[in-house]
Amino acid sequence: MAYVDILGFVAGTLTTIATIPQIIEALKTKHTKDVSFLTFLILDIGMFLWLIYGILIWSIPVIITNVISFILVFTMLMLKIKYK
After folding, report:
1. pLDDT category of residue 32 using cuts at 50, 70 and 90
2. What's the CATH code of the domain at 61?
């Protein structure tokens, strides 16, 4: 694996796990009033576009991390709707 791919995986992993604390907090408290729906919607659209980009250039780090990120951000959007 090239150092560029390792860098991509590290960067993607960090940005992917950044959403997890918010999801955990929402699940524990069942409270999402202070979470911006618009921010997470824009973020999810961005993740989806990064995924398409990763597929077009066939970059495995971009594809894998953005699939996971998209799912996590989408989960937060669903929690926002559920606990509104």
Report:
1. very high
2. 1.20.1280.290
